[in-house]
Amino acid sequence: METSDWKSVNRASRTARRLVMTIALFTVWDLPSPRVSLSETPPPTQTEATLDLPSESPLPNGSSAKQSASDTSVTENTLFDEIPSVYGAAKYDQKVHEAPAAVTIITAEQIRKYGYRNFAQILDSVPGLFTSNDRNYGYLGIRGFNRPGDYTSRVLLLIDNHRMNDAIFDQGGAGTETPIDVDLIDRVEIIKGPGSSLYGTNALFGVVNVITKRGRDLKGSEVSGEASSFNTYRGRLSYGNKFSNGLEILLSGSYSNSEGHRELFYPAFTSTNNGITKYADRDNLYYYTGKLSYGDFTLMGGHQWRKKNVPTAAFGTLFNDNRQLTVDERTYLDLVYQHEFVNQLNVKARLYFDRYYYYSDLPYDSGISSPPSLLNKDVTESDWWGAELTVTKRLFDQHKLTVGTEYRDQFRLNQSNRDIDPPTTYLDDKRRSSFIAAYLQDEWAIMNHLVLVAGVRHDQYSTFGGTTNPRIGLVSTWGKTTVKLLYGQAFRAPNPYEQFYVTGTTFKANSNIKPEKIKTYELVVEQYLGNHLRALGSLYQYNISGLISQATDPADGKLFYDNVDDITARGAEFTIEGKWPTGLEGRVSYAIQTTRNDQMEQMLTNSPQHLVKTNLIVPVVGDKLFAGFEGRYTSSRLTLAGNNASPFYILNLSLFSQRIVKGWELSAHINNLANQKYGYPGSGEHRQDIIDQDGRTFFVKLKYRF
Q: What fold does the segment set 3-240+252-261+442-705 form as a domain?
């Protein structure tokens, strides 16, 4: 970025801070209304897996939930009268404009009509988010941060409020390795900003909470099949229902088999097979999930096995050797108890078990004529269990208090690395660690239309000690306008891979790594424009201290991880979305961000300055046939070699039909309609500076419900 651009962002940041102070002073000074009595408001409709307490939510026309219930003309003419709820921002249900964060909700209907077939496509549609892929894993970037090789460890991924980041790499996942079938998603909550005051580690930049469907949403069985580019075939069989005795069940199984590209060309390997690798891009997986609810108890779990061939010859392996692969296996089981007692006391307790298993086959040149190659095997095994208790209670009419505690025992943290033949062991590390945490949050209705949210969490680790992370926010709602002034801190604990991974003469351990920390300042404004349009804008600045990065020890030339970088970022996001009674809906967003390394005084790699996104759903035949259009512009990104990955614009088109024939749904999708050539920056383990992505692809899917 030019110096003038950085100065412009600085001026915008100073203007934003002045605006924040002005709004805060005006809000406190100019509120003559008496304090609202939260205990007298009617309870909203409850949803499962929520801890919502009665609260009165202003609607876009300025009326309350009580008023809207008796005014049918409002609900008939206002498409935003049912403001979506979010759970992950406070660990209880609240309307998105009440949440102390910038929140985006992607619904099941949008997933179907836009034809999203994997988790990365959903995330790519969200303002301010961007993904990358190295043909092994998918990676999520948010607000300008997505360092090459980062396993999405600085965003917390939840499925039904269950933590999915693993215990070895902290990997959240943004590709096919993510253990979820998108057909089972009810909604995705994207909550931007630090979340450690409630969730602890990983929630540096935000929380992504995937809420899956319940048995009542299926009301029977579903079977689906699809075919797509690269000889890819997928199938799913699901059953769900809620019975008259209160028992609710959902069971589902999915599989996917893809040959991938038969040939890929990489100029960095022209000396080997003219840079062409064959049959080295396969992607195979299966996924099972279940959910059983009765009374106050819910038992849920999932298991995914995924094998991916790696065509990029990462980590210095042999090129055009399709033995290189990674296998990821993820399992979890979660028992949840939730009950609302008298006097608006809500209790939620959970007991869970998780397992993550990974291995990679890595073919290397042996350096001798016989055998000419050797196979290295990299393996991790991790198992952990934990428990959490959360209590939410109304106090003194104006307060909603949340108190919680969490314990986690990571009783197996094993890493190994060895050559198969001749047998040589480089790493055989076995460890155990744990943490205990307590958190407190108060939502205080200071006056009518003004709420103060303040919270803090302390985590005590057996490895590095303790860390405390607060957040505070003011949320002011006036008719159709909501203003949020937010500050928060968060952390990410060093993981076993960063602390203890060793391989021969390449890597060495560093057990003295400290948690990396972030401070974020943000102004969010949400404005309803009439009955069908809503505008959202945010200005933010964050500062990361002690970012864990890879470094080289000059004494021995070995790589190791340490707290070596400090980061400063400033940015703005703007979104306008609309929804009409005909079924027409759309969204346009623009994000600008500058993210700099303070020590090196340069922009971060893989950090686009501009993101522009357009989404449009058009009803073609009533509620039976819809067309979905999507466009994404991403500006250039700096690579590790100091080059730029070119900017690109991706156009997608989808068709979705329902209710034409009873029980059947048909959808078709073309991704990258213009066959745009583009690529993402490679990581340190790649010889490729830029890794090219897929051109035009398609899929056709048929689903039958019975």
A: Maltoporin; Chain A (2.40.170)
